[in-house]
Design brief:
Layout lengths: L2 H9 L7 H31 L3 H37 L3 H36 L7 H13 L1 H16 L4 H23 E2 L2 E2 L3 H26 L10 H37 L3 H17 L1 H19 L3 H37 L3 H13 L4 H17 L2 H27 L1 H27 L4 H4 L9
Antiparallel strand pairs: 1-2
Helix pairs in contact: 2-7, 2-11, 3-4, 3-5, 3-6, 3-9, 3-11, 4-5, 4-6, 4-9, 5-8, 6-7, 6-8, 7-8, 9-10, 9-15, 10-13, 11-12, 11-14, 12-13, 12-14, 12-16, 13-16, 14-15, 14-16, 15-16
């Protein structure tokens, strides 16, 4: 290893130096990457809307299925980030290599499985989701090329999480920005065509998405194989892969469950709102997209907490683990108050930018006036769940999400609908955020208060390499 590489890895060591500085420095590039990813989806929806109502409706029917694939990939990535960050903190180079190689093998296997299952179930699954027969050809034209590109979706997500676990968020952000730029360039060319070349319509959006993922895939492989030198298959043994996979999946499986809870519950909330007419659902959809941008800082912070906590936990620096959680919680409460104030003041202005219909505007204003009061609490939930995943306590994060969505939000929203109508549904979401944030912080503080934390989840030693 060269001297410059040693210095570079030392700069990514999160077990010393200011916790606040680490969180800030890591969160800024992640914010850029997450913003690029959000714009990726926005560009797709905007350009497809120019094709016509049928194409936009067909794309909308693909969202639940593509979301499942992404949630599985993100869950696997959380397991990868958690285990690799702890290994990096313990400074076990061979363990890092074994885990990273196993993560990539799992991504390939899962990607091929999803590809085969997806291609063989298009005509069966989408009618069950309520897709009208006349839209099925359009859905198929999008999903066939998209499914062929699934491995290229999973591997970059794994690569991004590996790099993030090592303390590098600049390159993961670059991967995400690169994908967004490639998609931005190819989308109009492949959808609409240019000069005498005819575009592919809705299928063009899928092709552009696949090519953008391939670009991220190539960059990730270069960084992990050439720069980090963390892929080694030649001398890898089955017992090593089995042991590494067990550690990764112990976090990934509950993380995948956690990721599935939110969209399923969101669908039920939409069903509650649908009784107030399509305008209520449309307003909720617009406000939800605006919310993604409002929560950008919290999402970026939660993506960086895991590596900071994981590395310090692996290095047995438990005081720094506690400091990370406390610092992030304070930031979320203060930041949430500021965001809520801004949105309450600007709700009417924002609604008019995105929507022309006055009825839909009123729903957007209702949402942006009520729900943001709980954004600070939501940020605390993100932070605590990221901490649980970083420590390998992923089932606790699942428990918090179940409590928030199933035991608090849904009953409160259903009751609120009967008493206050749409306002009651939105306030039910707020109640779920506040209640779950309180419990999540208490649970995390209790876990981190134990002097025997290292005994609870001691990092397994490798016996086979």
């Amino acid at each position: 290893m060269t001297e410059s590489e040693d210095k570079q890895r030392a700069r990514r060591d999160l077990t010393s130096g200011s916790i606040r500085r680490h969180l800030l420095v890591l969160s800024i590039p992640m914010s850029i990457g997450i913003l690029a990813n959000a714009l990726f989806n926005l560009v797709d929806a905007y350009l497809v809307s120019k094709l016509g109502a049928d194409e936009l409706a067909a794309l909308s029917f693909t969202f639940p299925v593509t979301l499942v694939v992404f949630n599985c990939a993100i869950g696997l990535g959380i397991g990868a980030s958690s285990t690799i960050a702890r290994e990096a903190g313990a400074q076990d180079r061979q363990g890092l290599k074994d885990l990273t190689t196993t993560v990539m093998l799992l991504a390939v296997v899962l990607g091929v499985m999803m590809q085969i299952i997806g291609l063989s179930t298009i005509d069966l699954l989408f009618p069950l989701l309520g897709t009208p027969p006349h839209l099925l050809p359009l859905v198929r034209s999008f999903m066939v090329p998209w499914y062929w590109g699934v491995p290229f979706v999973l591997i970059p997500i794994m690569g991004v999480n590996v790099l993030r676990a090592l303390g590098d968020t600049v390159m993961p952000a670059l991967v995400m920005v690169l994908g967004a730029l490639v998609n931005l360039i190819l989308d109009p060319l492949l959808i609409f065509g240019f000069h005498d070349y005819l575009g592919y319509g809705l299928a063009g959006a899928a092709y552009a998405s696949v090519f953008s993922r391939v670009a991220g895939f190539l960059l990730c492989l270069f960084l992990i194989i050439r720069r980090e030198q963390l892929i080694g298959i030649a001398h890898l043994k089955v017992a090593t892969v089995r042991q590494a996979a067990k550690r990764i999946l112990a976090v990934s499986f509950p993380a995948i469950l956690t990721n599935m809870i939110v969209p399923v519950t969101g669908g039920i909330i939409v069903a509650l709102l649908s009784s107030f007419g399509p305008e209520a659902v449309a307003g909720f959809g617009v406000a939800s997209r605006i919310e993604t941008f409002a929560l950008l800082a919290f999402l970026a912070l939660s993506a960086t907490i895991g590596p900071v906590i994981g590395q310090n936990y692996g290095a047995k620096k438990h005081d720094r683990v506690r400091e990370t959680l406390e610092t992030s919680a304070r930031f979320c409460i203060l930041g949430g108050a500021i965001i809520a104030l801004i949105l309450v003041i600007t709700a009417s202005f924002i609604a008019k930018i995105f929507v022309e219909d006055s009825h839909i505007q009123s729903i957007v204003i209702q949402y942006l006036t009520l729900v943001p009061i709980s954004y600070g609490a939501l940020g605390v939930i993100y932070s605590c769940n990221a901490a649980f995943n970083g420590l390998g306590m992923a089932f606790r994060a699942t428990g918090v999400s179940l409590l928030r969505m199933v035991l608090l939000t849904l009953p409160a929203a259903a009751l609120g609908k009967l008493v206050l109508g749409i306002d009651g549904i939105l306030l039910g979401s707020c109640l779920g955020n506040f209640g779950a944030a309180y419990l999540a912080y208490r649970m995390s503080r209790k876990a981190l208060a134990h002097d025997s934390l290292s005994v609870w989840f001691e990092r397994p030693k490798y016996t086979v390499h």
